[in-house]
Amino acid sequence: MKGLNLKILSVGFLISILVAISAFPTSDGVPSGITDPTTSSVEANGCYCHNEDTTASVNIELTLPENFTAGGAYMLTLNISGGPNDDVRGENYGGFFIKATHGVLEPLENDTSVQKPFGETHLTHSTEGNDYREWNFSWTAPEKDDVIVTFTTYGNTVNGADGNANDYWNSGSFDLMGVNAVAVSIDGHDELTTPQKMIYAFTIIAVTLGVVVIGNRMVTNEQSFEDVLKDYWKSIYPWLTTTDHKYIGILYICTGFLWFFVAGILGLMIRWQLFEPRLDGEFLTYEEYNSTFTMHGTTMIFMAAMPIIFGFANYLVPLQIGARDLAFPRLNALSYWLLPTGGLVVYMGYFTGGAGDVGWTGYTPYASGESATVPGTDFWVAGQIMLGASSTLTAINFLTTILRMRAPGVTLMRMPLFTWSIFVTVFLLLLSIPVFTVALILLMADRTFGTLYFNVEAGADPILWQHLFWYFGHPEVYIVILPAFGVLSEIISTFSRRPIFGYTSMVYAMATIGIISFVVYGHHMFTSGADPLFRFIVMLTTMLVAVPTGIKIFNWLATMTGGSVILKTPMVFALGTIITFTIGGITGIILASIPLDIAFHDTYFVVAHFHYVLVGGTLFSFLGGVYYWFPKMTGKMMDETIGLIHFAFSFIFFNAAFYPMHNVGIAGMPRRYATYDASLTELNQFISVAAFIFGFAQLIFVYNVIYSYKNGKKAGDNPWNGWSLEWATTSPPPHNSFKEIPTLKLAEEVEKQ
After folding, report:
1. Which residue out of 99, 447, 523, 535 is catalytically annotated?
2. pLDDT for 123-151, tens place per residue?
3. Rounded Cα distance, 676 and 663, in Å
4. What pLDDT is recorded for position 46?
5. Which residue among the candidates 116, 133, 296, 632 is catalytic per the annotation?
6. How confident is the model at residue 182 (pLDDT cuts 50, 70, 90)?
7. How far apart are CA 240 and CA 226, in angstroms?
8. Is residue 233 annotated as part of the catalytic site, yes or no?
9. Of 99, 245, 535, 552, which is the active-site residue?
10. First-to-final CA distance of the chain
11. Is the model's pLDDT at 568 over the cut of 90?
């Protein structure tokens, strides 16, 4: 009790001292400014001589650059408004105090309104400056630009009369990042951007589901936690160490679809941002939006579409040519594991201050300059190099396998069209990916070592990166669409109950598309000041692509016309793919026209075009491929009713979401912008709602896969009566795919025997 009384007395004595101090004016209130030795008092208590507490009526604004470079010199402006006599200047009008954690503050030359007290590091107003509420001064940045500088300010607005009565003050803290700094909050914890919050939220959900699954098994099977983990490890270990092309194929497919859903979430974030014209930070900040569409495009192309293609190729190509495995099984495993590793590296930017914000094209000099988010862009470049290495090694493996490991009788012109599509694709990969990889290495050198490959001020070509990127970037479109053509050919032939019409012309058409793809990339650069003759040639060759593509569509239609079409889920997806891809192809011809491309360049018309090609073409085709080859991979049939529901929702709402984008593009809405003109609000809201329904429709597909894997009807070795060799083995195939290497014989050869 005695101790308690002593504490009470001590607190009361302290309060009495504070009240007494606040009742008397102190030296921080004099017109000559806040000078030694009052600095510590101000930092601890503020301008309490002008009022005991701060007031929000006093507004402090400090004009700072976006970021700073090491040793740079900057002029800063401090403005204080609000409080008494806000609109009438007089004597003793206002005052300030400012201090920086790094760098040197100095008054401007010949400016007597700001002073730097002798021996102090802060700035304050002078006697003359006491009659102002806005002051200018200089700040020299520290020699390191990997720090965050905090400017602490105190400002008062006074009435110049009645002593300290009716005077007000406020304080403010302002952070300025160096170009190589990582954003942290005041309390030292990492700031969570909106994308980071979503990543952490999904991580928590995943961990929670894992705990529920493990806990349920512990209770149901009466196992210990260690026993459950051992059982799961026995199931997981073979997948981590496998070199079997079928296992690796499934890993590729699952990884690709996982990244597809991640990219889909980012796409829905974009559509929510564009649900209405939003100000900076109302949902995403403009910087977060830049990172979001960058990661959306990068993930969809490099981490979703290509892995899904490689997955089907891994699983099917050896089976279709009668090989036991790929030529280099261990290289195949390395190629796969580079994929998730590179993807995680790309996403590391989210945890280090901001993901890459340079678009999936990474245009320089923006990507090589200081304005790009440094940690995120560096991780983006490094991850892309790893993904490029994965694709290059995969291409070498498939090229060798197809040329050297075909079973007897499987000549090049007897290969299934899906294998032919992969054969052409790997040539495109080998001729384009290394160019992009070299460009990425040069970009990394510019950003890391200060080289000048893309520095325009040092004499570099301002569009060098565009040439290097699009030499890869446009063949990349065909890298993801040609295998889709192969899938369509297999499905349409099987469900039309006849061989594909014009097999030879289909092969030549794919080869022609592959060749032309390297001479049309310039249509992405019609607005870059290219030579008129170059633009004209590119326009003609771009339109020429329509010829072999049209041949393929004609042959598919001819196959169905001469056959007996069975409308199962794979076939329905194939028909939907033909429709959507045709729309995308027509808009591509429109964009091939120089005047129309200039008009629609970088508008949402372009966004609509490539989504019709890549989603309506590639994704729909491979969704049909999952329904088609799922029985071969698992030995189970997918549910037909659920599959048709999945197609209906996907097809309807895909078109509802992306077809109106042509309209907003024609209206002039630019792509990559985080907001837009209010006159386009209703149409954008319609697009966003349709996009969300399309996104949630893919959950039907996930449910069907899980449900069918557990409860699906058993599939025979050839449930579709397919034509190619993968249907000649069991479902699923054994470890070495075939009990013995098959020999492909034509009907005429069989009759002779």
Report:
1. 523
2. 888 888 878 888 899 999 988 888 889 89
3. 14
4. 55
5. 296
6. low
7. 20
8. no
9. 552
10. 112
11. yes
Which pTM does this prediction carry? 0.75
Nearby residues of 685 by Cβ (< 8 Å), 6 or more positions away:
275, 276
Interatomic CA distance for residues 363 and 469, integer angstroms = 8
Residues sharing a CB contact under 8 Å with residue 469, sequence separation 6 or more, in sequence order: 361, 362, 363, 436, 439
Catalytic-role residue among 476, 490, 639, 726: 476
The DSSP 8-state label assigned to residue 108 in this structure reads P
Distance CA 726, CA 731 (A): 9
* Given 116, 245, 474, 601, the catalytic residue: 474
> Which string of DSSP letters, residue by residue, matches 600-655?
HTTBHHHHHHHHHHIIIIIIHHHHHHHHHHHHHHHSBPPPHHHHHHHHHHHHHHHH
636 is catalytic: no
Residue 671 bears catalytic tag: yes
User: Exactly one of 478, 503, 629, 727 is catalytic; which is it?
Assistant: 478
Distance CA 607, CA 662 (A): 8
* Annotated active-site residue in 113, 294, 391, 496: 391
Q: Alpha carbon 590 to chain centroid distance?
A: 28
Task: Please tell me the distance from the alpha carbon of residue 421 to that of residue 487, in angstroms, as a whole number.
Answer: 9
**Whether 360 is catalytic:** yes
| Statement: residue 242 has pLDDT above 50 | yes
- Are 140 and 71 within 8 A, CB to CB? yes
Question: Tokens 């160490």 — which residue?
Answer: 241
Catalytic option among 524, 535, 609, 636: 524
Name the percent of the chain lying above pLDDT 70.
86
Q: Mark whether 549 is an active-site residue.
A: yes
Q: How many CB atoms lie within 10 A of CB 365?
A: 17
- pLDDT tens, residue by residue, 649-703: 999 999 999 999 999 999 999 998 998 999 999 999 999 999 999 999 999 999 9
CATH of 27-177, one of 3.40.50.170, 3.40.50.10860, 3.60.20.10, 2.60.40.4060: 2.60.40.4060
The two structure tokens encoding residue 42: 């101000």
Locus of tokens 């001064």: 137
Q: Residue written as tokens 């309209």? A: 663
CA distance 601 to 605: 8
Neighbours of 728 (CB within 10 A): 16
Q: Which phi and psi (to 5°) does residue 46 adopt?
A: 80, -165
Q: Catalytic pick from 414, 467, 671, 745?
A: 671
Q: Residue 1 above 50 pLDDT?
A: no
pLDDT value, residue 158: 76
In sequence order, the β-bridge partners of residue 59 are: 81
Cβ contacts of residue 334 below 8 Å, gap of 6+?
393
Secondary structure (3-state) at 435? helix
pLDDT at 8: 46
The span from the CA of 360 to the CA of 303, in Å, is 12
CB 615 within 8 A of CB 264: no
Q: Which of 579, 416, 426, 402 is nearest to 490 (CA)?
A: 416
**Residue from 522, 536, 661 nearest 600 by CA:** 661
Q: What was the pLDDT predicted at 130?
A: 79
pLDDT value of residue 2: 46
Alpha carbon of residue 269 to chain centroid: 11
Q: Catalytic residue among 335, 425, 549, 634, which?
A: 549
- Ramachandran sector of residue 83 (left: φ over 0; alpha: ψ -120 to 50; beta: rest): left
Query: Average pLDDT, stretch 711-727?
Result: 91
Is 478 one of the annotated active-site residues of the chain?
A: yes
CA 688/CA 532 separation, integer angstroms: 39
Residue labelled with tokens 């372009």: 606
Active site residue 476: yes
Catalytic residue among 390, 421, 425, 541: 390
Please, which residues have CB within 8 angstroms of residue 279's CB and are 6 or more apart in sequence?
Answer: 675
Catalytic member of 28, 167, 244, 325: 325
Q: Which of 39, 153, 489, 634 is labelled catalytic?
A: 489
- Residue 474: active-site member: yes
